Amino acid sequence: MTRTAVPLRVDDLSPFAKTLRQALTQHEGVPSHVELLNLIAKAAGFSNYQHLRADAGTAGRLEAAVAPTPPADLRQVEKAARYFDDRGVLMSWPARFNLQTLCQWVFWSRIPPDMAFSEREISDLIRDWHDFGDHALIRRAMVDARMLERTVDGREYRRIEQAPPPELKSLLAHLAARVTK
Question: Which range of residues forms the domain containing residue 147?
Fold first, then answer.
């Protein structure tokens, strides 16, 4: 007999753990398998385990887990695009932090994933993508923004895989349209 997986999504783990702990302290002895399933389901906000299974069957919690992507702030995209030339090279470092971050995301998108780079290699990549001569500033800013990780000795750099902001897709499209003109 094939088992159906019952996914459980908890929005905040701390209240879930507190509720489960309280239920376990009120329970006499070690709960059975079914009792434990019911306690877990109740801590997650369901009536019991059957309620959790029924909810998972209708995919109510699964749909809620996929949050809609917020729309891109096109004003920010336009402002950031002004800092790039027609080749997609960053001409100057923006003064505003949010624009700096968006420009760093462009560099992040150009760094190949799942590859390790020496400091010289990552600096060479960044040097090719900007025109104002301070690759170390960008490299450090990307490490600080958790877009790049580096070893303690600074010898190896890797791109940190994560979901970029919605503005990145629009900015990359904007820059690509300029290059093809």
Answer: 74-180
